[in-house]
Amino acid sequence: MPRPITQRPITLLALLLATGLAACAQPGREARLASNSASRIASDAAGTAPPVVVQAPTDPSDPLEASNRRVLDFNLRLDDAVLRPVAVVYRDSLGNWTRTRIRNLLANLNEPTAAANSLLQGRPQEAATTALRFVFNSTAGLGGMFDLEQFGGPPRARRDFGETLHVWGLPDGPYLMVPVLGPSNPRELTGSIADGFMNPINYLIPVGANLGRGAVEGVDTRERNIETLDEIRTGSLDVYARLRSLWQQHRDAELGRTTAGAIDVLDDPGATPR
After folding, report:
1. What's CA 137's distance to the chain center, in Å?
2. Please, are residues 164 and 120 in contact by the beta-carbon 8 Å criterion?
3. Predicted TM-score of the model (pTM)
4. What is the three-class DSSP state of 174?
5. In a 3-state reduction of DSSP, which class is residue 75?
6. Which of 50, 51, 84, 148 is an S-S bond match for 43, by CB 3.0 to 4.6 Å?
């Protein structure tokens, strides 16, 4: 049974590295291509121009589906050529213990952003707890490599500016598939960018170190989702629709808009044979 999609990190590179897979091997899509080819042949024989076939969106929240699918095709090629191979090498080169230490350290560097968003969402007590957590894990946890929550330390509160904008009443906007970065929407994309500017740690370390940190976060997220995304690609009637559905379900759960538990990677209410 494949693992569920892991919690949304928040560097953008990680989100799409983890979900930049796609729909180039869809049976329905192949049928449409074959049909279009036949139409062109018949039109050429008759000496007329082939009709332009415009595919209607399959989801009201995704009016940009045609262009989004093309972006996902690009993400698929990039993933096959670079992202997945790098994630496999990362897993094979470093043991689980070492990868966990790296993951904890990177997560600890994002705690100031979580604290700021808790405050902006009107959760001052949670913001104070997150700040305390950052201090404890940065000192007794050796820079955050060890999460003291398992020993009774302050719990983690996963907050981001996309969620803050939701709390303030900003609507989602249309679904977007962002090159390299993956599933998003205008509010979440804006929130992810804002989170980078909100973290004071980003101003204390060199630009190169920040870029390297983002790359490692992306590789780590891609490594944790190797089996999950492989299953989505090989077991879906429509990979694009499945990714869209799973991302939307996952984000709805993070925003408290659903009472559903962990999302099953096999659950695909948005995918329909085409």
Report:
1. 26
2. yes
3. 0.75
4. coil
5. helix
6. 50
Alpha helix segments (H runs only) across 110-174? 111-120, 124-139, 161-167
- Smallest CA-to-CA distance from 87 within 213, 228, 221, 211 is with 221
Neighbouring-strand partners of residue 176: 184
pLDDT tens-digit map of 60-118: 899 999 999 999 999 999 999 999 999 999 999 999 999 999 999 999 999 999 999 99
Looking at the chain, list the stretches that DSSP marks H as alpha helix, in order from N- to C-terminal side. Answer: 12-19, 27-46, 65-78, 84-93, 96-109, 111-120, 124-139, 161-167, 186-198, 207-224, 226-235, 239-254
Instruction: Please name every residue paired with 183 in a beta bridge, in sequence order, or none if there are none.
Output: 177
Direct distance between the N- and C-terminal alpha carbons of the chain, in angstroms, rounded to an integer: 26
User: Rounded distance, CA 28 to CA 44, Å?
Assistant: 24
Q: Enumerate residues 6+ apart whose C-beta is below 8 A from 100.
A: none
Give, as one character, the DSSP assignment of residue 82. Answer: I
Name which of 26, 23, 6, 15 is nearest 77 in CA terms.
Answer: 23
Contacts of 210 (CB under 8 A, 6+ apart): 202
